């Protein structure tokens, strides 16, 4: 009888621990989903910034062409041309850096997706294990009630003897 109570208590503790783990993993999944959403927003922002920079580069390249045409007309425009070339170079470097950042963020997003899928599978496995333990607990509770009834009947029979 004590063994059954101890076993039931152990099953209850284990079921509680599994439920706590499931909640913990649900929290982790939510956290990863939130992180994933932030990364997607950051990627969107960087993509927009990259488009703006590319647009500026195109505008500046057009300006550089105009300045080159003007440079042939006068030596004074050569300094402006050099300045525009430097600006273009800086913008191109910024665009390249943005591209690298986007690639890195895409890789991080992919890794986050993989981790999220992994944790979702873990949560599902824990939920299944919890359900199995709950079913075992209910089965053991029924057996305990049946054993108790048999013991009470046996005690009553002994009392009648």
Automatic annotation (TrEMBL):
<dbReference type="Pfam" id="PF00261">
    <property type="entry name" value="Tropomyosin"/>
</dbReference>
<dbReference type="InterPro" id="IPR000533">
    <property type="entry name" value="Tropomyosin"/>
</dbReference>
<protein>
    <submittedName>
        <fullName>Tropomyosin</fullName>
    </submittedName>
</protein>
<feature type="coiled-coil region">
    <location>
        <begin position="1"/>
        <end position="157"/>
    </location>
</feature>
<keyword id="KW-0175">Coiled coil</keyword>
């Amino acid at each position: 009888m004590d063994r059954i109570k101890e076993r039931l208590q152990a099953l209850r503790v284990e079921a509680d621990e599994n439920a706590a783990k499931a909640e913990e993993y649900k929290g982790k999944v939510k956290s990863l989903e939130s992180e994933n959403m932030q990364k997607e927003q950051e990627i969107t922002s960087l993509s927009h910034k990259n488009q703006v920079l590319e647009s500026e580069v195109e505008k500046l390249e057009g300006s550089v062409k105009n300045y080159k045409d003007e440079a042939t007309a006068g030596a004074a425009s050569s300094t402006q041309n050099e300045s525009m070339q430097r600006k273009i170079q800086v913008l191109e470097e910024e665009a390249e850096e943005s591209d690298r950042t986007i690639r890195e963020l895409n890789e991080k997003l992919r890794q986050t997706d993989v981790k999220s899928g992994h944790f979702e599978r873990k949560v599902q496995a824990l939920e299944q294990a919890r359900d199995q333990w709950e079913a075992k607990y209910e089965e053991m509770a029924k057996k305990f009630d049946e054993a108790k009834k048999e013991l009470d009947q046996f005690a009553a029979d002994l009392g009648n003897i």
